[in-house]
Amino acid sequence: MQGKTILVTGASSGIGHAIAIHTSMAGARVIINGRNVERLKSTFEKLNSGDHSYVVADLSTNEGIARLSHDLPLLDGVVHSAGINKRLPLKLISDKSLTELMQINFYAPVLLTKSLYKKKLLNQGASIVFISSVAAFSASLGNIMYMASKGAINSFMKGIAFELAESGIRANAIQPGMVKTHLSSALSDEDIEKDMMRYPLKRYGTPEEIAYAAIYLLSDATRWMTGSLLTIDGGLTLR
């Protein structure tokens, strides 16, 4: 990762937080983004020494996307890690809840990618990495909106992988199973222990394990890899 400049969204917590830190440890110059200034500063302070920077911007708005992409340098990689989840059964889904979730999980990465490409901020050979989820293919009660958002991201990723290949730009997605982050903290310890037994490896993943996969996709080790879904789920989808 030496000499590469990488943008990581959603870097204030969870998977994005880990990706930012480990990408800096691998030698990259990292630009991190998030909505919460205090948490984003906390991530920034943990980055390995280097010419890093942070941009506080809400990517659910056009203004936030414009602010983030305004003064960016040329990028060798982008990790779209910002995301939210809200479980609701079909009968309780509203325009507001659906729009809120899709705005962050789908519209934001799509429109940010468009902005970066139109402004020619992606170097030839740049790697775009989306954090998706096995939920795109695996149903669970109350998870309809999240499933739909990740399925949409997977399709978008494949579409731009094909469209941007001519420019030498790659796009891939990581599909984690359950990872120990604030999104999983809503479950009780008993429910977590029970749920982990569904995984052949009998545990959830860690943010660091997803970060290693992101570094792999950002690096030159995957120069001939585009349009792929990299599943990291402790064997969950083997069943």
Please tell me about this protein's structure.
With 239 residues, the chain is of the alpha/beta class. 40% of the residues lie in helices and 17% in strands. It has helices at 14-25, 37-46, 62-70, 95-118, 144-164, 189-196, 207-218, and strands at residues 5-8, 29-34, 53-56, 75-80, 122-131, 170-176, 229-232. A 7-stranded parallel β-sheet has the order 3-2-1-4-5-6-7, with helices on both faces. β5 (122-131), α5 (144-164) and β6 form a beta-alpha-beta unit. α1 (14-25) packs across α7, α3 (62-70) packs parallel to α4 and α4 (95-118) runs parallel beside α5 (144-164). The longest helix has 24 residues, at 95-118. The radius of gyration is 17 Å and the shape is globular.
- How do the helices and strands follow one another from N- to C-terminus? EHEHEHEHEHEHHE
Largest sheet properties: 7 strands, parallel
What is the alpha-carbon Rg in Å? 17 Å
N- to C-terminal separation?
35 Å
Mean pLDDT across residues: 95
- Ranges where pLDDT stays below 50 over 5 or more residues in a row are none
Strand content: 15-25%
Largest sheet, order of strands side by side? 3-2-1-4-5-6-7
Query: What is the share of helical residues?
Result: 40-55%
Globular, elongated, flat, extended or rod-shaped: what is the shape? globular
